[in-house]
């Protein structure tokens, strides 16, 4: 639909209520439906620039609702983060303060849910985009990820080790030295883990 509707016509028929109703469909159990909705939302955002600010706010609201007002069983978070990945990729440098706030108050807290595995790949991409654009953010990102470290969830622990590896690979030595102590302190604890997969993943990072 969005492919064949011009901006003038779109302003008349693709309203804010239409967009909000569209976003509710992300909670569908049907993966194919969620993927189709993702593509439609992506195209609306790309084509109808007058809706972009509202769409960013609405997409943020969905994520905040998931983080703070649900039992973390909501569908569609991975698809929404995939849309955000494209949006973040288009951010110019230096980053606006509102974008850094999104990183701190939305993306970082998304590391806390136990079922993070279902959207972690998309989350890592979003966070990595921020760090690549402004390396200085690596310090606060790593510090906050370490605060989200699980106590008994080995699968989540493996994912976070991999995320730390990706972040560290994308920063220069100056910033690495600022985060080296807390990172290696955490990895030292992982070495003693009873879970072989955690230990194996940790050893890869140490190579």
From TrEMBL:
It comes from Helianthus annuus (Common sunflower). One of its GO terms (biological process) is signal transduction. GO terms for cellular component: protein phosphatase type 2A complex. SUPFAM superfamilies: ARM repeat. GO terms for molecular function: protein phosphatase activator activity. It holds the Pfam family B56. InterPro entries: ARM-like, ARM-type_fold, PP2A_B56. Signal peptide: none annotated. This is Uncharacterized protein. It comes from the Eukaryota.
